């Protein structure tokens, strides 16, 4: 937080600040004694009544004595700028922010305790004026802390905006502190009424009630002393020379056009480095694509070999299948022949039995010989018919077998022809695919080569154009610099010439004024008809007054010239300081970004020397 206003004496500061600290510590001690002796001490969720006791203690520590929020808002943090008025501002800012964050953590712990107590007892939250003012204080404190952190510590805003925000920051700090004191006193009163007012002990001047009232009075005194210390202009922090230098350095860095151009060149170097990295990545990608294309050709060759091997295995499997089919047909024909032989054997067996039957019948009944002979003839005829049928059946079976064999051979031949046709078609398809793949690979390779060539040409043209623009830029910068130096020299010569002319005009003016004054005095003397002696005395006196007037004008002019020379020297010294600050910042940026930029850094250094 930057100091504002003028610095006065510190008369009475130590006494007031010491009294303020004593009152604050006394408030903390009395609150701890009250909560321990009268309220039973401290606990957590196991004892909700004792858990509530953390609320006033944490709020008193975090808001009254450290970082005011709800009960009291960080007067110690506010007054650190009064108590440590002769320390570096950076340290004070860190201490101020640290005390505030510790106080805020204490406030959060106290709020957790009171909300847990209300939930355990079934009490509504945020119903009283004390809770409303406390919540408003907490919200304002959080906003105040974030605004101060962003504005004054990190990342920081511009000096003009910071100087405009500083009075608001101070005013809101005092307002939040007053709200914290108010919330603290209201909380003490609320606790006293809830605990002691129901049975009349508060009205009977109970010792606990008197202690609570005394704590409230001490908080009021604590707040009054704190507000007085904050608003007293003579107690403001003394600005150190280091702070003035840092503030001047920050203003120079914020308003420096050269530094902004230097940072722009740094960003441009990063962009160029990223572009170079992208180009290298593109080249690596193209190389990987070439490698992948070679791997793809090898993969297609392996696929062709696998397809040929698969066709060979398929041909062998088909050949084995045809052989197996032929064996199955032979087994079926053999089975049919065996069945036919069995039938013939059965028929012969039947014939033998018939002959035996016929012989028995011939022996048993000769009288029926004619019938037997007739039956034998019929049997012979039947047997002949049977043999004829058997012959026809065998011929038919042979014909069917020949037809089946012909059909099998035709099927095998047809399958062989189909396989050959498929093999030829597959070979033709493979050749066509290989031709198309080869053509596509050649086309892709040609497109890649053309693309690479165009990319190289584009990069070359871009580099040439970039170098040309950079050369033009730095030539223009050097020309402007020389022109600026030449203009300064010309202006200096013109100023010297103007001064000489002004001196000549002053001499002429003095002579003219001397003549006019002498003429006026002579006219006055003629009008008044002085005596010769008196006229000579008057002329001498008039001449002396004229010389005195001219001398005064000369002295005034000389003082004016000396003031101009002093202002010119101060401007030159200020410009030299500004140049040194910018050069130091440039060196810092180079050291910071040098390891990252690498090869891009020498170009940047060469350009910086021109500036």
From TrEMBL:
<keyword id="KW-0175">Coiled coil</keyword>
<keyword id="KW-0349">Heme</keyword>
<feature type="domain" description="Cytochrome b561">
    <location>
        <begin position="19"/>
        <end position="231"/>
    </location>
</feature>
<dbReference type="InterPro" id="IPR006593">
    <property type="entry name" value="Cyt_b561/ferric_Rdtase_TM"/>
</dbReference>
<keyword id="KW-0479">Metal-binding</keyword>
<keyword id="KW-0813">Transport</keyword>
<keyword id="KW-0408">Iron</keyword>
<dbReference type="GO" id="GO:0016020">
    <property type="term" value="C:membrane"/>
</dbReference>
<feature type="coiled-coil region">
    <location>
        <begin position="436"/>
        <end position="523"/>
    </location>
</feature>
<dbReference type="Pfam" id="PF03188">
    <property type="entry name" value="Cytochrom_B561"/>
</dbReference>
<dbReference type="InterPro" id="IPR043597">
    <property type="entry name" value="TPH_dom"/>
</dbReference>
<dbReference type="GO" id="GO:0016491">
    <property type="term" value="F:oxidoreductase activity"/>
</dbReference>
<feature type="transmembrane region" description="Helical">
    <location>
        <begin position="94"/>
        <end position="117"/>
    </location>
</feature>
<protein>
    <recommendedName>
        <fullName>Cytochrome b561 domain-containing protein</fullName>
    </recommendedName>
</protein>
<dbReference type="GO" id="GO:0046872">
    <property type="term" value="F:metal ion binding"/>
</dbReference>
<feature type="transmembrane region" description="Helical">
    <location>
        <begin position="209"/>
        <end position="231"/>
    </location>
</feature>
<keyword id="KW-1133">Transmembrane helix</keyword>
<feature type="transmembrane region" description="Helical">
    <location>
        <begin position="54"/>
        <end position="82"/>
    </location>
</feature>
<feature type="transmembrane region" description="Helical">
    <location>
        <begin position="12"/>
        <end position="34"/>
    </location>
</feature>
<keyword id="KW-0472">Membrane</keyword>
<dbReference type="Pfam" id="PF13868">
    <property type="entry name" value="TPH"/>
</dbReference>
<dbReference type="InterPro" id="IPR043205">
    <property type="entry name" value="CYB561/CYBRD1-like"/>
</dbReference>
<keyword id="KW-0812">Transmembrane</keyword>
<keyword id="KW-0249">Electron transport</keyword>
<feature type="transmembrane region" description="Helical">
    <location>
        <begin position="166"/>
        <end position="189"/>
    </location>
</feature>
<feature type="transmembrane region" description="Helical">
    <location>
        <begin position="129"/>
        <end position="154"/>
    </location>
</feature>
<feature type="coiled-coil region">
    <location>
        <begin position="331"/>
        <end position="380"/>
    </location>
</feature>
């Amino acid at each position: 937080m930057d100091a504002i206003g003028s610095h006065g004496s510190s008369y009475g500061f130590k006494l007031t600040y010491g009294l303020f600290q004593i009152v604050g510590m006394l408030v903390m001690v009395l609150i701890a004694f009250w909560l321990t002796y009268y309220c039973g001490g401290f606990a957590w969720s196991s004892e909700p009544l004792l858990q509530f006791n953390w609320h006033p203690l944490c709020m008193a520590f975090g808001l009254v004595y450290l970082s005011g929020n709800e009960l009291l808002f960080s007067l110690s943090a506010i007054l650190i700028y009064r108590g440590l008025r002769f320390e570096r501002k950076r340290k004070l800012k860190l201490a101020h922010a640290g005390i505030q964050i510790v106080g805020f953590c204490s406030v959060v712990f106290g709020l957790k305790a009171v909300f847990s107590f209300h939930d355990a007892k079934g009490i509504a939250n945020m119903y009283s004026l004390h809770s409303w003012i406390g919540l408003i204080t907490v919200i304002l404190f959080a906003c105040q802390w974030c605004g101060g952190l962003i504005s004054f510590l990190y990342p920081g805003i511009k000096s003009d905006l910071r100087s405009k925000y500083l009075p608001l920051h101070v005013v809101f700090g005092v307002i939040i502190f007053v709200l914290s004191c108010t919330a603290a006193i209201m909380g003490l009163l609320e606790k006293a009424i809830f605990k002691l007012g129901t049975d009349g002990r508060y009205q009977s001047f109970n010792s606990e009630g008197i202690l609570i009232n005394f704590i409230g009075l001490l908080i009021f005194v604590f707040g009054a002393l704190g507000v007085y210390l904050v608003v007293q202009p003579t107690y403001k922090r003394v600005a150190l020379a280091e702070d003035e230098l840092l503030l001047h350095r920050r203003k120079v860095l914020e308003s420096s056009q050269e530094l902004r151009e230097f940072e722009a060149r740094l960003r441009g170097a990063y962009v160029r480095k990223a572009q170079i990295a992208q180009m290298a990545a593109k080249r690596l990608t193209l190389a990987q694509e070439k490698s992948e294309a070679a791997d793809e050709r090898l993969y297609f060759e392996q696929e062709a070999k696998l397809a040929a091997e698969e066709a060979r295995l398929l041909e062998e499997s088909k050949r084995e299948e045809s052989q197996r089919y032929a064996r199955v047909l032979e087994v079926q024909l053999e089975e049919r022949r065996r069945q036919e032989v069995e039938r013939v054997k059965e028929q012969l067996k039947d014939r033998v039995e018939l002959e035996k039957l016929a012989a028995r019948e011939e022996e048993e009944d000769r009288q029926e010989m004619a019938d037997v002979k007739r039956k034998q003839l019929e049997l012979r005829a039947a047997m002949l018919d049977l043999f004829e049928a058997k012959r026809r059946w065998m011929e038919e079976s042979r014909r069917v077998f020949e037809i089946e064999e012909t059909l099998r051979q035709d099927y095998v031949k047809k399958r062989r022809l189909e396989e050959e046709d498929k093999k030829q078609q597959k070979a033709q398809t493979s050749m066509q695919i290989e031709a198309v793949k080869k053509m596509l690979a050649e086309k892709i390779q040609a497109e890649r080569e053309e693309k690479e060539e165009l990319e190289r040409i584009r990069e070359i043209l871009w580099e040439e154009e970039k170098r040309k623009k950079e050369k033009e830029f730095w030539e223009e910068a050097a020309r402007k610099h020389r022109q600026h130096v030449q203009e300064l020299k010309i202006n200096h010569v013109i100023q010297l010439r103007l001064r000489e002319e002004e001196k000549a005009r002053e001499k002429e003016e003095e002579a003219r004024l001397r003549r006019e004054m002498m003429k006026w005095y002579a006219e006055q003397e003629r009008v008044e008809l002085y005596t010769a002696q008196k006229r000579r005395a008057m002329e001498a006196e008039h001449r002396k007054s004229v010389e005195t007037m001219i001398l005064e004008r000369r002295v005034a002019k000389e003082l004016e010239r000396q003031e101009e020379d002093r202002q010119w020297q101060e401007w030159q010294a200020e410009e030299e300081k500004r140049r040194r600050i910018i050069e130091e910042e440039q060196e810092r940026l180079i050291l910071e970004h040098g390891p990252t930029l690498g090869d891009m850094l020498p170009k940047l250094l060469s350009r910086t020397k021109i500036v």
